[in-house]
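Friendly challenge for the regulars: who can give me the structure tokens for this chain first? No prize, just bragging rights.
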Amino acid sequence: MMNKQRFRHGIRCVIRSTGGSIYNLKAIRNAELNMGLSQSDWQYHAWHGTNRFAGQGENVRLRALFSLHAEPFTIITRADSGIQQLKDLIHHRVNLGAPGSGQRGTMDILMDFLGWQLSDFKLATELPSPKQIDALCGNKLDAIIVTFGHPSIFVTRAAETCAIRLIPVEHPAVDELITAYGYYRKARIPGGLYPGNPDDIPTFGVGATFVTSTHTSGKAVYTLVKSVFDNLDEFKSLHPALAQLQPTEMVQDSLSAPLHEGAEQYYREIGIACYDPTPSEHNRHCQPGAFIPANRPDPTTTTEAAPAAATASP
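First reply, four minutes later:
Bragging rights claimed.
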């Protein structure tokens, strides 16, 4: 949508496929990417300099643009695997996710809460997304871990390749994880989306967010945000997972870093602005016409940059 108006604003958006949230956030910090997708949990860690970003410290340059759809933590099993619930993964062959992906990071955190070790699995692999379905349906794996919105082309393709089952992700450790980290929430995958899976699947999840940094100019960010929100119906039609997006929720939910100044400008124009989160909060609180600037001053000036946006592979 942004490129459709390139002749007016002179900015071209180039899409790149990457390894996922953690890769995108590191690349944005290093000015190797201008914008990218990130799960809400990893946006939080990058902003606060925690978990896998502890060695780098707080990323005071990180800026949020908007949030997108929910991304439930999803466990796909082969129907004949014998796996019925979360605890059954032990002693089976499981793909935990590609290194640097958001779902791998989430799985690592869940394993900590469960008290699991890699040695508890019969086999723990790190296959990239394109190889996972063949391994599952070829009986080289019993389950694969993914985190993305539903309905998903990936899950549909798996169901068309072999008989699969989505399993509930319920456990006291999951409840503890949600309580400990506010960017996680209970989620539900609707039944009937995929062959052989008629029932709703309870799980937990994060939100998909779109982020950038102060390296990216206000003009570039404003142009991108305006392109999305001015054409929101068209944007929502691009994928079923986007169909329920609401403008206020996109600015309010799952954002830990302050808004970029270019996004602020557009949201002011349409009457939506947000208070910045305090260190104890994980969500913004939007009020029409009310705005408080970022609570951490940026030590550098904003530089002009043509946007390169990254998509996160499951």
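The radius of gyration is 20 Å. The first strand starts at residue 14 and ends at 18. Your move, everyone else.
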